[in-house]
């Protein structure tokens, strides 16, 4: 639960950062693309997620003598968190590729929450998926204008 709480705090802080960034502009912040550089950010985020899980397991293992080997669920949870933060940060910078990261995160979320039988959350992530597809379409169009 502390992980979910800290995740929401991070989203709130990034939301305020995005609000400040977007409203501080004399002109509207233009949509930009980072092209193939997105793969650098994806790799960094993936490695950060693995490091985060390992660190949390290491701390937990030292407290209760449990294994430092992460479960698949722990890895998925950490990567879901890290990639959501990456997508949020890219959104604050108005980077087109944020929508691609959101699309993947939301597809994983729909599948994950369906397997957990969290139907309302799965429906919510499906709605997020539709919004991300629409956002990508609109920002791509704005970029080409």
Short account of what is shown:
This protein has helices spanning 2-23, 38-64, 72-92, 98-115, 119-144. It has 145 residues and is mostly helical.
Strand content: under 5%
Q: Please provide the count of β strands.
A: 0
Distance between the termini: 44 Å
Written as H for each helix and E for each strand, in order along the chain, the element string is: HHHHH
Task: Please tell me about this protein's structure.
This protein has 145 residues and is mainly alpha-helical. The chain has helices spanning 2-23, 38-64, 72-92, 98-115, 119-144. The longest helix is centred in the middle third of the chain and has 27 residues, at 38-64.
Question: How is the secondary structure organized here?
Answer:
Elements: H1 2-23, H2 38-64, H3 72-92, H4 98-115, H5 119-144
Helix pairs in contact: 1-3, 2-3, 3-4, 4-5
List keywords for this structure.
145 residues, mainly alpha, 5 helices, globular
């Amino acid at each position: 639960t502390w992980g979910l709480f800290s995740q929401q705090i991070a989203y709130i802080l990034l939301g305020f950062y995005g609000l400040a960034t977007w409203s501080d502009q004399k002109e509207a912040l233009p949509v930009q693309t980072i092209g193939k550089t997105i793969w650098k950010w994806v790799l960094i985020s993936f490695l950060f997620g693995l490091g985060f899980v390992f660190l949390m397991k290491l701390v937990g293992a030292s407290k209760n003598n449990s294994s430092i080997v992460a479960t698949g669920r722990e890895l998925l949870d950490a990567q879901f968190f890290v990639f959501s933060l990456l997508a949020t940060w890219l959104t604050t910078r108005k980077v087109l590729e944020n929508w691609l990261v959101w699309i993947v995160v939301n597809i994983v979320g729909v599948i994950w929450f369906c397997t957990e039988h969290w139907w309302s959350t799965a429906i919510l992530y499906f709605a997020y998926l539709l919004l991300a597809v629409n956002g990508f379409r609109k920002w791509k169009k704005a970029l080409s204008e």
